[in-house]
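[step 3/7] inverse_fold.run input=structure_tokens len=279
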């Protein structure tokens, strides 16, 4: 397969995705009903220039991570995703790799939860996709690359976060994350990216190494989280972790009790988030 065929496929798939279905504003003059190149780049977390070079056949051999991100952004079916990997000269990820595929049913769920902050992560806690409300609440993740998108990596390397923990909550959360990651590591022992991340975390974080070497295995549970937002202040929200067992995905949903101050702040965030996306 040639990069020209890859470019043609990307253009066809881009043209069929309406921006509003991807959570993007549909205003302005458009020559086609589908996504603009810059919108696809935003959704996939890559540069506009790289999208152009892929479509024009001037870029060859995109990485598996880029292909997976493009497949999610373009809402490809399972067969289309496999075809995209083949066009890129890659073997589709097998059962030994942590799955990163969003099924149409999970995508439909996201489409319906437009007023609720929702993020979808893989079994290794790498954020795959987040809706605009999640970005408004937790900060826009679109500029994060590689391990920066992984929750374990961010928590143990001191990345900025809006979540505020007490010392006891933080210790429990760290232990839960490492226990979950170890269980994932056992399910996918041949996943090279996961092995590399664990090795780098053990080398760079004493706390992670201590917890990892303790050998605890378990599941990270949902909880209530206090989030400090720069515009609406503190919110304490329910944070439910839903698991898609067949695809080994985690759906993180933030919600507030109706009629509370937190619910009012979330409603305000939906307006602030929309304005930031349009502007």
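[step 3/7] decode complete -> sequence:
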């Amino acid at each position: 397969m040639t990069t020209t065929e890859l470019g043609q496929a990307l253009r066809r798939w881009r043209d069929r995705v309406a921006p509003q279905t991807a959570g993007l504003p549909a205003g302005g003059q458009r020559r086609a009903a589908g996504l603009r190149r810059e919108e696809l780049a935003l959704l996939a977390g890559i540069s506009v220039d790289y999208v152009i070079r892929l479509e024009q056949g001037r870029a060859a051999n995109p990485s598996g991570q880029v292909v997976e991100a493009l497949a999610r952004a373009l809402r490809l079916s399972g067969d289309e995703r496999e075809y995209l990997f083949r066009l890129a000269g890659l073997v589709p990820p097998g059962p030994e790799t942590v799955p990163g595929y969003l099924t149409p049913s999970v995508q439909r769920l996201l489409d319906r939860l437009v007023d609720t902050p929702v993020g979808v992560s893989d079994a290794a806690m790498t954020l795959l996709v987040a809706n605009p409300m999640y970005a408004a609440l937790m900060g826009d993740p679109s500029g994060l690359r590689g391990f920066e998108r992984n929750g374990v990596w961010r928590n143990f390397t001191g990345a900025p976060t809006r979540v505020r923990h007490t010392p006891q909550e933080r210790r429990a959360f760290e232990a839960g994350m490492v226990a979950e990651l170890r269980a994932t590591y056992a399910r996918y022992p041949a996943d090279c990216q996961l092995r590399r991340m664990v090795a780098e975390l053990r080398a760079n974080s004493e706390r992670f190494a201590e917890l990892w070497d303790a050998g605890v295995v378990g599941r990270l549970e949902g909880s209530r989280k206090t989030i400090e937002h720069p515009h609406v202040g503190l919110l304490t929200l329910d944070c439910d972790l839903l698991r898609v067992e067949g695809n080994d995905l985690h759906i993180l949903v933030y919600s507030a009790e109706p009629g509370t101050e937190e619910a009012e702040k979330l409603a305000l965030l939906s307006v602030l988030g929309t304005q930031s996306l349009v502007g």
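[step 4/7] annotate
The chain has a mean pLDDT of 89.
The CA atoms of residues 56 and 215 lie 49 Å apart.
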